[in-house]
Each structure stands twice: as C-alpha cells, then as structure tokens.
Amino acid sequence: MSGQTVSQMQQNRLGRILAPIAVVVLLSLGGCASTPEPADLELIDNSWTLRRDALMQLQNWELDGRVGITVEHQAWQASLVWIQRGENFLLDVAGPLNQGRLMVSGGPNGVRAERHDGRVVNATDVEALLRSELGWTLPVAGLRYWVKGVPNPRESTESIALDELGRLAELNQGGWRIRYPSYIESEDVDLPHKIRLDSGDVSVRMVVDQWAHGV
After folding, report:
1. pTM value?
2. C-alpha span between 172 and 30 (Å, rounded)
3. Which of 23-27, 40-44, 194-198 has the lowest mean pLDDT?
4. What is the pLDDT of residues 2-15, one digit of tens each?
5. What is the pLDDT of residues 141-191, one digit of tens each?
6. Residue 132 clears pLDDT 50, i.e. is over it
7. Contact 127, 115 (CB under 8 A)
C-alpha cells in the first residue's frame, strides 16, 4: 500500500472531502462580514417627517455666521447676523473691516436698508436691494427655510436626499441645489452648520457659528 497505513489513507480522504467545505464556509463568513446592514428607510423617513414638521413650526430664530458669494470670477465675503420673527426679518451684513456694512429689515410690506453712513433705502424686494447695495444677493425667500434644513413650502420640490439620521442632506428647489455637509446641535435640535448653494454660475457658502431659536 505504498507504505501508507489504513488510518493515514482515511485521514487523507477526509482532508480531501473537508477542504472544499472549509473554503465555502470561509467565503460565506467573509461575505457576511463585508455586507453592511441595510438602512432602515422607514425609520429615516419617519424621523425626517417629524423633524420637518417641527422645524416648520420654528418661526422665531437667530443665527450668527459667515457667507461667501462667488459669481463667475468675482467673489465677496461677509459676516452675517440673521434675526427672523415670523414674517419679519433683520439682516446685518458686514464685509471685511466693516466696509460695506448694511442693515436690512423687512416683512410682507416691504424692506428697508440702512448703510453705515446713515443713508436709508426703501424697496419692495430684498434680493434686488442687496444686489443694488452690495453687488451680490442671497435667495432670501427660500433661504429663510433652507437655512433651517427644510424645503420652502411655497415652492415645489424637485428632489431631496436624507442622511442616516433623517436630516436633509441635499435639496433641489427653485433652481438651486442646496447641500448640507454638516450640522450642529442647538438646544437639543440639529441645525445646519455648513450650507452650500449653487445655481448656474452663482455659488453661495454659508457657515453658521451660532444658533438661537424659540426666542
């Protein structure tokens, strides 16, 4: 028997049988380890619905941050304080070294801008007023909602994408693509920290350093 004992022949035969089985088991285990658990889409959707409804009820809030505007090859940067009280708002926009500081207040009945030199301008459209006074503008009507991380209920929504916590990750609305790279916690509520808006050759970058709400 070529020097092999019966016991050795049985062990060799058993090894040939078990080897393919071991490979299959290892592949199966490897497949299980590399396959992520599917996201609970229903839970994410429910979280988003509750979050959206709660933030829609948030009518009084304040933010302190910075904004950068790029139009073609021109760019502007400014600090921004935004105070919202229902339908009324106050925007305090200041460029570097307080140059070009502008206080804009308004509501349903029109807007009023006061420059650092005391000159006052009245208008009916806040976006047109910002453009004429600063050379750039913000989509204030939509941004009033987008900055909280919810769509503008007065416009149709083209598409939305949510993160794993049911927060808005991307929104396409009113000709703008709005993205939310990060959130910060404010009074037990996650609110946007960084916001990116793009429309054609216009790009807006906002960073909110501090939120206050329910004031």
Report:
1. 0.78
2. 39
3. 23-27
4. 454 444 444 444 34
5. 999 999 999 999 999 999 999 999 999 999 999 999 999 999 999 888 999
6. yes
7. no
* Listed residue (141, 114, 109) closest to 127, CA to CA: 141
Q: What is the DSSP letter of 97?
A: G
Return the pLDDT at 40: 72
Complete edge-to-edge strand list for the sheet that includes strand 202-213: 120-123, 110-115, 102-107, 88-94, 74-85, 60-71, 202-213, 189-199, 176-186, 168-173, 157-162
What gap in Å lies between CA 148 and CA 118, rounded to an integer? 32
Residue in 205, 199, 202 with CA at minimum distance from that of residue 65: 205
For residue 74, how many other CB atoms are within 10 A of its CB? 9
Q: Is 79 exposed, middle or buried (0-12, 13-18, 19+ CB in 10 A)?
A: middle
Q: Which helix (H) or strand (E) holds 43?
A: helix 41-56
Q: What are phi and psi of 118, to 5 degrees?
A: 95, -10
Q: What is the DSSP letter of 155?
A: S
Q: Count the helices and strands in the chain (H runs, E runs).
A: 4, 11
pLDDT at 106 over 80: yes
CB count within 10 Å of CB 9 equals 12
The position carrying tokens 């509750």 is 50
Tell me the two tokens of residue 143: 């941004």
